[in-house]
Amino acid sequence: MALSERDAGRVRRFGPPQRIVHRATGWLMLLCLVAAACLYLNPLAQLVGRRPLVAGVHRWSGILLPVPLLLGLLSPEFRADLRRLNRFAVYDRRWLRAVRRGLTKPKDRPAGKFNAGQKLYAGWIAGAVLVMMFTGLPMWFMGFLPFLSRAGAIFVHDILAWVIALVLVGHLRKAYADPEARRGMRTGYVTRPWADRHHPRWLDEERADEPDGRSAKSRRESPTTAARAQTDGPRTTSGVKLWSGVPVGADLKYPFLAGTLPDADGELKGAAFPVPASWVASWLEKQPGFDVSTITYARFTELFRQSQAEYDEVIGTDDPDLSAFRASGGKLLTWHGQQDQLIPTRGTVTYRQQVERTLGGAARADDFYRVFLAPGAAHCALTGQTDDLGALRAWVEEGKAPETLTATLTDSTGKQVTRDLCAYPKESRYRGHGDPAAADSFRCVTPPRR
């Protein structure tokens, strides 16, 4: 298996064939370049001497350069990596656009096992080696070629040698800057967080959590396992969380999050929630009639990444750098029901935490951005009213930052009660005395860290 685990936190990146080929090619390339320097740079030539021996080393190391690769073709694992290097995907073009624009966030540079830069480098260096061989061999048999052919071959050979040397220096600098990448080539294993950060599509496409590739339709789980998966949220096949799950206590029956509908024979069948089902069928698969029940767990992750790659620049709203908005004097107020079954509450909380980390802490975020969580409220279903727009207006126009939002609610008995929604991360707690229907019987407290 391409990604068999060495231990709980590491995954296999390269097997012995890839590492041996890389190492042998690297040493031959280094030997060839050093010998070339000793032939063409006078100070080195005088220091080393033995020109016939050095010339022989240069020639044979150059001729042998393709041999490790040719021997590597005997390995299925090595051939699989060559196919990946030769296959340019849609997200590789996005990686290149991000490089041109100077974007460095992992989400801006999607990559499989090899990123677009590595693919271009591998193709270029292979072509350069072939050109060097075909321009170097004529110099070995000078008497068989006319003068112009010899001069042209020498010119191309010498210029390309300098270019290769510069490109290799860049390659070594990149490798030196990434210890985990070097460790992967040296030992064959890398950490899972590194793989998910720099090569997320590699794990998503190749490490199957289900060895038989079963689809979500064919897999049978206990109700407890299925419910736990709903609240935990979707993950990649390597266990990395993609998004937050449905809050505990949220209504899964409406609108058909975990619903059923009768088929032509009257038998109840699972019914997908129409919004994401339509999104996948029409916008990702580009087949309006696509059956989403055939999606495998690995394919789900591919679709998730595809959605990010194709549409994040258009409708993405998860950039936590709100410094420009803050500097312009803007204020942002969010309230979110804690039993929202369509937009997970945890996603809003996670975004707020990302803003805090980006801007330097909770206090700096509180200066312009506050979140209020409404206990028991479902999606767009606060059973009452709260003057959130009035609170935002007072904050912008009068400088009164809201500590709470007072909400008038209707409880299960039909009685009206008032509650203060507390600014995150605080929670509302009963004081132990007073009318439970009155907001002043509760206070906002910071919960202990979990």
Can you characterise this structure?
The chain has 450 residues and is α+β, with helices and mostly antiparallel strands. The protein has three domains: 5-205, Up-down Bundle (Fumarate Reductase Cytochrome B subunit); 208-315, no CATH class; 323-445, no CATH class. It is 51% helix and 12% strand. The protein has helices at 16-40, 42-48, 51-63, 66-72, 76-85, 90-101, 116-140, 147-177, 179-187, 192-198, 200-206, 223-232, 274-284, 297-315, 323-327, 345-359, 362-366, 388-398; strands at residues 5-7, 10-12, 189-191, 259-262, 268-271, 332-337, 369-374, 384-386, 404-410, 416-422, 427-430, 442-445. The strands form five sheets. It has a three-stranded antiparallel beta sheet. A three-stranded antiparallel beta sheet has the order 8-9-10, with no helix packed on it. A two-stranded antiparallel ribbon has the order 4-5. Helix 10 crosses helix 11. It is elongated. Residues 1-8 and 207-220 have low confidence and may be disordered.
Give a nutshell description of this structure:
With 450 residues, the chain is α+β, with helices and mostly antiparallel strands. The protein is built from 18 helices and 12 strands.
Topology:
Blueprint: E1 5-7, E2 10-12, H1 16-40, H2 42-48, H3 51-63, H4 66-72, H5 76-85, H6 90-101, H7 116-140, H8 147-177, H9 179-187, E3 189-191, H10 192-198, H11 200-206, H12 223-232, E4 259-262, E5 268-271, H13 274-284, H14 297-315, H15 323-327, E6 332-337, H16 345-359, H17 362-366, E7 369-374, E8 384-386, H18 388-398, E9 404-410, E10 416-422, E11 427-430, E12 442-445
